[in-house]
Amino acid sequence: MIPPATEDILGVFAGKKYKPVAVKARAVLADVPKKFRIVRNIVGDPLKDIPILSPNPPPFQPTSQYTAEHKAIMDANHPEGFLWPAERTLLHHLVSMQAEGFAWQDSERGHFREDFFPPVDIPVIPHKPWVEHNIPIPPGLYDEVCRIIQTKIDAGVYEPSNSSYRLRWFTVVKKDGKSLRI
After folding, report:
1. Cβ neighbours of residue 109 closer than 8 Å, sequence gap 6 or more
2. Please, what's the b/e burial string for 119-153 (b: 16 or more CB within 10 A of its CB; e: otherwise)?
3. Where are the beta strands (DSSP E) in the chain?
4. Is this model's pTM higher than 0.70 or not?
5. pLDDT at 93 over 90
6. 3 state DSSP class of 179
7. What SS3 state is found at 35?
8. φ, ψ dihedrals at 166, nearest 5°
9. How many CB atoms lie within 10 A of CB 4?
10. How far apart are CA 145 and CA 158, in angstroms?
11. Phi and psi for 119 in degrees, rounded to 5?
């Protein structure tokens, strides 16, 4: 026998479908037109100029891109006992040699070369575009949300768009309890 309070809770969770079957989006089986096929044309060997990693790395020397602060971040992410001391030294040597491949701030982000990884076009069938109205941003979070969005625009993560589509978005608090994620 289920207690009455539990029946009320079960009624809330089981009483309504998430999405009616009539509204469900269904994939359409079709061949992909030739213009939508992804062709990677990698000319030459992209790894030919990669530096050879020494099995006996030198002690850590801060550089302009891999500083002592960045080393401390790496050490914090790999606590004592996770790596042997020789592995930790090799890790720091590798990161200092390949420092241009790491982004320590959003402004340092990059993207893959378009001649190696061309932009992806996704074919669609004729349909009516959807527009979902956004959840209002609380006034106390407005400035912080605007700052996050501007940072992502400056880093090239977000781009201007004239799309007919608009999806709902929202923010959540990260694990640290104070910063936001969109």
Report:
1. 103, 155, 156, 157
2. eeeeeeeeeeeeeeeeeeeeeeeeeebeebeeeee
3. 172-173, 180-181
4. no
5. yes
6. coil
7. helix
8. -150, 125
9. 7
10. 14
11. -60, 150
